[in-house]
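Sample A.
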Amino acid sequence: MLESEFEEFVKSNKSRLKGLSDTEKIRMFIDWCNKYNIEELILRLSADGKGVFDAGYFLDFTTKSLLIRKKTWSRKLVDPGYIAGMAPLPYRLICDKLKVSDISKRTLAQTSNIIELKSENPTKYITYSQIKEIRLRPGVETRVTNMFGSTLRQNFISIKIDDSSYGYSLPVGKNDSYDKIYFWLSEIIPVDVSPF
């Protein structure tokens, strides 16, 4: 989505957005995107495979689908993640102090073209109608400790699709707490999200 399109959404719905809860604002944004056939990134979770040296992934939840994209090794090491997984434009809706101009052009460019993200190799493009369930579990296990001796905390997600499933760990430092992730996934994504 272009910055101008987002500003048009905010401008044309300014009076309706006032007084709405954060989830209502995001749902209104999703409905508007779907009405104009715009697929926009809503949530991005930073995920890791089961082992320490497994690849890192982006779990991109858009208005219509889930994209599972493999990170490069350098991106795995320096990826700061998003606040509770919220992508920049939806986050702008719920944070009054943030302006679109505060979001870097590079960040907007990286999230704006879902068509490009879909075509990256290897990317799994999964529509919400294909997903049977998403299960989220708070982290009680630890994999490793970092070089400073502190424990790396993580949550876990399982995504069931027809006859297959995908499992990932979600580092807390890059995705925020279990409660925030569970809240946003269960409120925004049109798929059953349950604890396991």
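Sample B, a different protein:
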Amino acid sequence: MAADEHLRQWLAEGMTGCQFAKLIAQEKDRIVRATFAGLAPEEDVSRVFDAGARARLPAIAIFTGIRTEQALAEQLGILARGARWTLTEERPEGLTTNDVMVGMEWRIRDGIASSPMGLAPFATMPVTRRAP
């Protein structure tokens, strides 16, 4: 089974705890998705999100080659260099941790942004955001 279909089925089973993601993932044609075997140029990732915005559908970019937190940080750095991506370090009040929490926004167009949900198979991810 292809990685994008595996992830779609995992979402459809409600593994993230997000009912919206579960409902959307029930049908294959309700998600724009692309798989990247390694680190991807910002323009390629933004193209996936642009296609989703044009179709008025959620978009999923799957990075099958990212196996470490270091590689994830590198991919986030690539995205952050693009004009449409904003990454911030988040520090929720009352939470004490050595983990680095990252906020992410992708600008759809002036005045409208989306906050992508990140999933990864790392122990530092919240349980409901650990991908298969």
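Observation for Sample B: The first helix runs from residue 3 to 12.
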